[in-house]
Amino acid sequence: MKKMQLGVIFGSRSCEHEVSVISAVQLMKYVNAEKYDLIPVYISQEGAWFTGEPLKNMESYIPRFNPGMAGVRRVQPDLTAKSGALLSYTGQGLSGGGRQEITARLDCAIPVMHGLHGEDGSLQGLLELMDIPYASTGIGGSAIAMDKILMKQFFRGCGFPVLDDMPVLRSAWRKDAVELIKAVEQRLPYPVFVKPATLGSSIGVSRATDFKSLSDALELAFSFDRRVLVEEAVNRPIEVNCSVLGFDDQVRPSVVEMPITGGDLLDFGAKYTRSGGSKGMASLSRVVPAPIGEAMTARIQALSCEIFRALDCKGVVRVDYMIDSMSDRLSITEINAIPGSLAFYLWNQSEPPIQYPELIDSMVNCAMRAYEEKCENDMAYRSDILKHAALGGAKGAKGAKA
Question: Helix or strand or coil: residue 136?
């Protein structure tokens, strides 16, 4: 039986570029070679696309990726629907008589992106145009999940529990920083967390306890994003996370974990540096299952599935929560449409356990199910607008009068 040509797409122009590389290399080690021909598709920090066997190894990115290394070819995706081709050029290229070749052809793709230009719906839109099945949440859900401000507005509209917050703009900060800080202080009591709206991995996130620290936190956050979320802090918080796997009517939650933060903020260093960077989120210290009682665990698992369905997610996501240890108040922190390390460390400890090769199979199955559903949609509706336009009705819809 012919093996599936499985593309793993990673990297891209993002502050989380290196985290994406770590997650992708982890995943590629577990791809079943009897089922899939693995095709690594690396997008550099400059936005160029590459493929080749060396991209499966971490050594290819240390200390820095070399686009001229042996075995690696620069490619570009063929945007023709259903082509799935990655094109390369030999000779002098487009301007000098070079020859175009198909280097690889994708049957399905697993985006392993973290942050902008990949996890935010942009890559998903490209894959939709290319008509390639892909194992991640779609355009709308990915865009909302990536944007903390839109995400919280969406969650409130769904009636999901979230912390109080205030969105602020860089333009207001530049116009009058003192006035902006005073407005935040009137809205939210200290302490607060300050977060760039569209970054992940806790990059640019700070905790503020007074005017000076809030000013410093906003200055940092606005260096990463023009939109920033200021959010109330939880007293004596317990952080817990739950992954969800599936598509449409087949959705299941993972075991619930409790990361060990060692402080008030689970920052980038705690996630990726101090705990062993080459292992990504999988190396973070955690308690599994989280010691929060059966009732709270069941509530988090059920709510995570509700969130998954509300955003029409696909594949694997992770939902992060805060529990106020004084009141047991539960609040959603965020949803990660493509979680670090694909949250495999939660699935191999769930019941029944799912090992990484099986998790990849499940993600591919989700991608193919979603694609089959898409193919059932009628895209051949005929309106005859062009026919009428040719006969003199060129005004279109705007030409109609009541």
Answer: coil
Do 109 and 68 sit in the same domain of this protein? Answer: yes
- Residue 136: both structure tokens together: 């991640």
As a whole number of angstroms, the distance between CA 99 and CA 396 comes to 43
Q: Indicate whether 226 belongs to any domain.
A: yes
From the CB of residue 151, how many other CB atoms can be counted at a distance below 10 Å?
A: 22
399 lies in some domain: no
Interval 27-66: pLDDT, tens: 999 999 999 999 999 999 999 999 999 999 999 999 999 9
Measured from the Cβ of residue 150, the count of other Cβ atoms closer than 10 Å reads 16
Strand order in the sheet with 227-232: 165-169, 227-232, 192-196, 206-208
Angle formed by the axes of helices 148-158 and 139-146, to 10°?
Answer: 110
- Residue-wise pLDDT for 105-158, tens only, equals 999 999 999 999 999 999 999 999 999 999 999 999 999 999 999 999 999 999
Instruction: Convert the pLDDT of each residue in 82-104 to its tens digit.
Output: 999 999 987 665 555 678 899 99
Tokens representing residue 257 in the block: 């974990």
Whether residue 246 is found in the same domain as residue 120: no
Top pLDDT among 200 and 267 is at 200
Q: Residue for token digits 């009517």?
A: 249
pLDDT band at 393 (very low <50, low <70, confident <90, very high): low
**277 and 150 within one domain:** yes
Let me know if 224 is exposed, middle or buried by CB neighbors in 10 A (0-12, 13-18, 19+).
middle
User: Residue 25 domain-assigned?
Assistant: yes
Task: Give which of 23, 29, 31, 10 is closest to 364, Cα–Cα.
Answer: 31
* Burial (0-12, 13-18, 19+ Cβ within 10 Å), 363: buried
